Amino acid sequence: MSQKHFDAIIVGAGQAGPSLAGRFAQSGRKVAIVERKLFGGTCVNTGCTPTKTIIASAYVAHKARTARSYGIAVEGAVHADLKAILSRKDEIVGKSRDGLESWLRGMENCTVFTGHARFESSTELRVGDDLLTAPEIFLNVGGRAEVPDMAGIKDVPYLTNVSLLELEELPKHLAIVGGSYVGIEFAQAFHRFGSEVTVVEMGPRLAHREDADVSRNIQEILEKEGIRVRLNAECIRLERDVAGVAVHVNCGEDDQPTLATHVLLAVGRRPNTDDLGLDKAGVAVDEHGYIQVDDQLRTSVPGIWAMGDCNGKGAFTHTAYNDFEIVAANLLDNDPRRVSDRIVTYGLFMDPPLARVGMTEREVRKAGKPALMGTRPMTKVNRAIEKGESDGFMKVLVDAESKLILGASILGTGGDEAIHCITDVMYARAPYTTIQRAVHIHPTVSELIPTVLGDLKPLEPSGQSES
Ligand SMILES: Cc1cc2nc3c(=O)[nH]c(=O)nc-3n(C[C@H](O)[C@H](O)[C@H](O)COP(=O)(O)OP(=O)(O)OC[C@H]3O[C@@H](n4cnc5c(N)ncnc54)[C@H](O)[C@@H]3O)c2cc1C
Hints:
CATH architecture of the largest domain: 3-Layer(bba) Sandwich
Shape: globular
Oligomer: single chain
Number of strands: 24
Bound molecules: flavin-adenine dinucleotide
Strand order of the largest sheet: 19-20-23-22-21-24
């Protein structure tokens, strides 16, 4: 075994590790970065990039099918060619992955190791035949699809976000277990490609972290397109069937299983921390395996940091990247940035997208803050009407005393971009009136945000209470 010494070792070339390697190398530190599989990690290879790429194909299919309503004639039936869709996806993903790998390999002061890294001690990691040592180690090991121990899971074939994107043929009937972000995005995309799709959700509503009105709207949009949604599936059981897999949903005798050709599991993620040898380093994890970190992403062991999905502080590419920024700012820039400075924000990239920032209405009510709320349906947003995409609504919550914006949800066309004018004002800690006085471009979705803010009403205590 050969021993190699560095100033810093980074494990995982996901969304935080490569950028940190770049900053360290630039500052003259000798850095090693270890990747066991695909450079770019989940987001580039099996998460954000491939899903948003196929969602773009699904959008085109949908527009082609509805072209007549825009006065455009499309001859013949619209047919989705899965092979071509996935090869477009592979090309986009491949460019991103290869670009990252060659950037790292060509970086001065940086050595790339391919293989699985495992701790030998708090300053040593084994990668194949190499023993890497460094006084500072940064973990960016990400996560993978959770495979729950549900009844029948060992007896049937199932798909995850990885294998679904490798199929050669379109599923005739795709059952999706899990009605949250990943499940919803795949449900709409595959339905638009031509699969029959059923979403099976244990809880009483889709996207259960959202407000009840948001969940209801999401369900209506999916059902309007023909996607079947089965909620309150308290007894999910999988069984082999002539068609493929029978997905049983309730415990009673009236159980009417969904007979699917394929089953996708979309029930959450788990961190890649069980095979890292964390015990040898003494790094503490929580009961779900997430590495415990403080506000500056230091683990329980001095000299070891954890960034990205593996620390449980975020589950998105932008939170992983922000973790890199926090570590780099603290270690290299003498700038004490913290995780607690971050405002929650994310998108659900169905069509129309849901964009979220800050608190939900439910959270505001729970906090008992005197608050104001403004809403507007997308049927009253000119740009949405002109585009023929007027599903959804927007909602903004404001602190009644400080006038600071507490949070917003925009479920509607362009919402994933428009939300940022709210986000930026929240970071500036400026009152909502700042947006109200800003002149926005017509016709956009953003131009209606000042209008929503001009019509704020006190949040009635008797409002939404569904949890
Ligand atoms: C279907 C899907 C869609 C998504 N869409 C979005 C989206 O639209 N927007 C968004 O913000 N987020 C999205 N996400 C989430 C996003 O992909 C993750 O939050 C993000 O990739 C986390 O980055 P990370 O750097 O923490 O981990 P990862 O990207 O998972 O990278 C971790 C890397 O570490 C490597 N590794 C692990 N263990 C070891 C080891 N022991 N030795 C060496 N290497 C190791 C892995 O191979 C991997 O390359 C999506 C996720 C999924 C599954």
